Amino acid sequence: MSRMPGRGGKPVGMGPGMPKSKNMGKTIKRLMGYILEYKTRLIFVLVCLLASSLAGVAGSMFLATLIDDYITPMIGSAVPDFAGLLKAVLTMAGIYVIGLVANWLSNLLVIKMEQGILKNVRDGMFSHMQTLPIKYFDTHAHGDIMSCYTNDTDTLRQLISQSIPQIFSSLVTIVTVFAAMLYTSWILTIFVLVSIFLMSFVTRTIGGKSAKYFVSQQENLGDVNGYIEEMIHGQKVVKVFCHEDKSKEQFDALNEKLCSSATNANIYANIFMPIMANLGHLQYVLIAVLGGFLAIKFDMLTLGAIASFLQLSKSFSMPINQVSQQISSIVVALAGAERIFELMDEKSETDEGYVTLVNAEYVDGELRETSKHTGLWAWKHPHGSGEITYTELKGDVYLNEVDFGYVEDKLVLHDVSIHAAPGKKIAFVGATGAGKTTITNLINRFYDIADGKVRYDGININKIKKNDLRRSLGIVLQDTHLFTGTVRENIRYGRLDATDEEVESAAKLASAHDFIMRLPNGYDTMIDASSGSLSQGQCQLLAIARAAVADPPVMILDEATSSIDTRTEAIVQRGMDALMKGRTVFVIAHRLSTIRNSDNIIVLEMGRIIERGSHEELIDQKGKYYQLYTGAFELE
């Protein structure tokens, strides 16, 4: 089945999937690290589970005393004395009440502990995700990443709230019940152990097959989620090209794999209970027969002892059944935890920079750092000698013989040299894939160059801290993304400390103020991430205003007016000209009419600069730009 390749050459929606557990011990150890953060609560949970299990065993043992010491003596008695029996029954009821209260407390504590652990896991994932490089998101399906937050965390919830408490309770019950059974009758205990061995064999056989299919189920589920997300985002394209039937065909193929693996996984999981339950019933009958034989033939057991042992054997088989039922959940949870930890172990974006951006002012003609906001910024550059120098932020960008490739052995930029002096407007022209957006990705260090130098105000950008570098750049992308919130909050995203007046001023600069004021609540109108209430052009205007409020010395406009109609473009262009005044600007545009006034137009082809110059100079050369501008050759 063919899939459209994403950036970086990996298929969109086809992530790494859900591999088999590579190191179960390491995964369990890391999980225990989260669990032990609630050590005190965990101890209380374990104590409550212990009390609940011991109460059940004590109740079963008390059954022998109840029958042999209170019920049997009253059989045939002319005047039975119920006082002792009532006291014994009340004692037994008290034991069970203790177990009930302990069980209720353990459930309450587990719920609070479980939600706290899941919160910490999600916090850890999201915090680490913010440190990952853009390359990670370009090469991993969003559906697979979302699966870590949804499916995998849900399996962890089941592990913490059900599997772990139930296994601990079962182990305690098994140990205490075994001791009680051995005390009651060693012969019947041996018989129970033999039958349990047979049950364990069945459990291992079915559990092994179940584990294999559950791993496949998680992998297939990630593929289905990724494909659904891809289709939701691309629904307009699907409908425009009448691709519905083909999309359904591709989805059916993925869904069929999920259906098959999930069916097989749940078949084996669901036959656990009936098989183990029926084996338990058979064991119960055989114990009664053997116990009766020992009591009648050898007088080795009393009626109360048989009744007590039957109850104990049931209590012994039940936790084994419960452990068997939890095997699948544990396998899925550990596999899910491994996926979560793989995300958290992804290499963070590295930053070796030490040059920072600071507020500055001139004192007696010398540039100095200041704590107040002056509107003047400077690069604070510490040197090995201990000296600190300050360089005014002007927006001088210089690329010198830069080579770059998204993949090491395949360069997409070759020997690119560009100088953007402060306040100059540089435009990039070329066919799709020529390398226009790639150059801007190198300026803001979404990717690092393979060879050459990129200097910003004379400083190698590798020496500048990435956050400070990006804070000095304003970017308007071709694909507009707004966040759920008010219009004001979306514009303020460019600079969180911007005042309401600065937000409105930026909107006016981007020619967005008029349409904002026509919205139901003006700047306080709520919009969602899909921006369904706004046109694409309006979304683009808000993105431009968001860049304007940041007031950066360097602007990168990647097809910033691509979604705006010609009439609106004329209005926006005036605002854009005002926005670009006095700034270093990099413009990527297919509409060549929007870049005529650029100081330098760079024509790219296959990652190489083939022409450069002003509009008039390039027209006079009658080369590729001339062909593009006159329509003799069109951009692809």
How would you describe the overall organization of this protein?
The protein has 636 residues and is an alpha/beta fold. Among the domains are: 322 residues, ABC transporter type 1, transmembrane domain (ABC transporter transmembrane region fold, Up-down Bundle), CATH 1.20.1560; 27 residues, no CATH class; 72 residues, Rossmann fold (3-Layer(aba) Sandwich), CATH 3.40.50.300. Helix content is 58%, strand content 13%. The chain contains 19 helices and 16 strands. The relative contact order is 0.08. The N terminus is likely disordered.
Structural class: alpha/beta
Q: Given the structure, what is the number of helices?
A: 19
Report Rg: 36 Å
β-strand number: 16
CATH H level of the domain at 24-345: which superfamily?
Answer: ABC transporter type 1, transmembrane domain
CATH topology of the domain at 24-345, by name, is: ABC transporter transmembrane region fold
Strand neighbour order, sheet with most strands:
10-13-14-7-15-16
- Strand share of the residues? 5-15%
Determine and state the CATH class of the domain at 24-345.
Answer: Mainly Alpha
General shape: elongated
Provide the CATH architecture of the domain at 24-345.
Answer: Up-down Bundle
Instruction: Detail the poorly predicted runs.
Output: 1-20
Cα(first) to Cα(last) distance is 27 Å
Query: Average pLDDT across residues?
Result: 82
Helix content: 55-70%
Let me know the largest β-sheet.
Answer: 6 strands, mixed
